[in-house]
Amino acid sequence: MGxxxxxxxxxxxxxxxxxxxxKSHKTLFDKKVLRGVLELFDEVEVDxxxxxxxxxxxxxxxxxxxxxxxxxxxxxxxxxxxLPSSLRTAIDVVTHNVREVNxxxxxxTWSKEIRTGTxxxxxITSLDSVGIWIPxxxxxxxxxxxxxxxxxxxxxxxxxxxxxxxxPNGLGDRGTVAAAKLAGADQFVIxxxxxxxxxxxxGTQTIPEVDGIYGPGPGGIAAAMSVAMxxxxxxxxGIGPTESMIIADDTADPLQLAYDLINEAEHGPDSSxxxxxxxxxxxxxxxxxxxxxxxxxxxxxxxxLKKVFGPQGKGIIVVAEDTEAAIETINWIAPEHxxxxxxxxxxxxxxxxxxxxxxxxxxxxxxxxxxxxxxGITAVLPTNHFAKAFSGVTxxxxxKYSTIGKLNQEALRRLNPTIQEMSDYEGLPCHGKAAxxxx
Length: 439
Prior knowledge:
The protein is α/β, with parallel strands linked by helices. Helix content is 46%, strand content 17%. The protein has 17 helices and 13 strands. The protein has a 6-stranded parallel sheet with strand order 1-10-9-8-11-12, sandwiched between helices. Helix 6 (142-155) links the parallel strand 4 and strand 5 (159-164). The protein is globular, with a radius of gyration of 25 Å.
């Protein structure tokens, strides 16, 4: 096991080791980052493309020209043509499954007469345009591109603009470009992430203004999404570094759990990976296998995993006093990804107790990787406790709801005394008059 050790701690609910490792978890970004993001938004508003180019040179170390900010149609087609046939097949399967899930989730316009002469309802309309940010700091994210672009397509968004960081050659990752285009993206722009989000919020000479902006990323990206909302742009907050949590009983396979822990942990040293169980024996069996698995990983990923499960990382195994305490720990963390691996009766009991989780995967045959890549459910999910208030990004985030109300004359007559009383008390007599003249 080397010099590293997973902390196995018997706790009632949230233990000291867990609290210590996650004490900063609520801070998705600090005020210093936010100030810098606000300044860059102001620069992009004034200088447009030039501000994006400056930020990309300063923060990404890549110098672009104005005509490089938008990828050419020829390059996009070349990306698709260059896909290996096996990868193209995988992209098609993922896109089909994500589309199928979003079509199932898609809300529809409805109306209902709730009282005689009174009709209420909702009209569903898509956003006209969205921007999708696909990070690549830790590697290409084809699956994220497919999930977000397909969600927008199913929602009926007319223009989908994908932004991504540039490679050293000044172009976008070929596989990600191809996957996003096949899923339905219309345009591609490249540059520094915060600057691209600012450009999508303001509009520049090259980068169009959009109505919604979505995508994961570190603190700066999260801060940029929150600032974009102040400009009237739809977004989903709290999508930061990946985190996963497993609750398991003695029926679980320790080797499978070890791989499930490193599944999300390999994204980067800031990843969170937690196993909570009531079985001390299972905890130690998983810990033993975990380090064997880590030792078998190639060096680059091995170093990441050692940091995650090292003394300063957010990789931890917790032994809870009882199932109730384990569920309390889950609801406190509110994990992005949650896996329940337990006997059938216990699985249902845990499900009933879990209130806060971005996604819930059930059973030993539903690993995190299946949710990330193939089932079709979204893996663009809230982190940093944000699952207590936010959900994952689907087509439902790319539509808006107009409430509908309709009265006939008799229904208005019945409501008129109420309207008059309310308008009188609020000192708005024209409100009352607008109703009374109709009856």
